Amino acid sequence: MEIALAKILVVDDDVNIANLIGRFLQQKQYQVECTYDGKTAREKFKQFRPDLVILDVNLPDALGYNLCQEMQTNQDVFVLMLTSRTDVEDKKRGFSTGADDYLTKPFDLEELEFRLQAILRRRRVVDSSDMNIIELGDLCINPECREVKVKQKVITLTSLEFDLLYFLASHPVKVWRREDLVTNVWQNNPMGDNRVVDVHIGQIRRKIESDPSNPLYIFTIRGVGYKFNYLK
After folding, report:
1. Main-chain phi, psi angles of 61, to 5 degrees
2. Closest-CA residue to 194 (of 224, 171, 216)
3. In a shared domain, residues 86 and 170
4. Which CATH number goes with the domain that contains 163?
5. Do 152 and 108 lie in a common domain?
């Protein structure tokens, strides 16, 4: 997928902000649709099937966190959250519901595009791989259709969770520091805090491990980071 041809859905209850973002991105050759409430966003999401959603946290009829989670459940899509909130806990909540990045208002449009490119580039990196299916124990990771199964059951992962899991599984046994995972998977640090990695590892474990506190696949290396190493 060419980044410039990506389809982007803008969801913000401030019509002026949404339209400003829409016009700017259209000038950059993106395909853009704008909506201003949760109900319309859900409808447009199904019709437009965007590659990425720019999503405001506070909407008149929906909470952006909940909408983010719904979208990630129904489609392999990237989400960049927009908010006027600066609290770290709010950001962590956004990431835990599947957000790929978080931008605080007011923001610079050029920075917005930089972050969009960084997010969309991750898909290109994964797609340009040799598409090896990884099968270990009950876990199967198929990068071509971006599907994960545990005991033949399809597991719903967010785009970022899939990218992180596939990256770790593609480099078994190797120990990765949090900052190295941010560099390789995020390609930018969305929070300036490498603990965002811990949030996503926790989410992945809850989905693929039968006992997240006693994992079979993703191991914590204290004081360093994480490694993928299947134990029979």
Report:
1. -125, 10
2. 224
3. no
4. 1.10.10.10
5. no
What are the C-alpha distances in Å from 51 to residues 31, 75, 79? 10, 9, 9
**Residue 36 — φ and ψ, nearest 5°?**
-125, 5
pLDDT at 186 over 70: yes
Q: Which of 100, 127, 154 is the last residue of a domain?
A: 127
> Who's near 12: CB < 8 A, 6+ residues apart?
18, 21, 34, 36, 54, 55, 56, 82
Same domain, 143 and 106: no
Choose the most confident range, by mean pLDDT, from 8-12, 157-161, 192-196.
8-12
Question: For the chain, how many structural domains are there in total?
Answer: 2
Interatomic CA distance for residues 216 and 210, integer angstroms:
8
Listed range (15-29, 109-123, 150-164, 178-192) with the worst mean pLDDT: 178-192
Number of H helices, E strands in the chain: 8, 14
Final residue belonging to a domain, choices 127, 155, 182: 127
pLDDT at residue 175 greater than cutoff 90: yes
Torsion of CA 42, 44, 50, 54, to 10 degrees: -70
pTM: 0.67
Q: Is the pLDDT of residue 191 over 70?
A: no
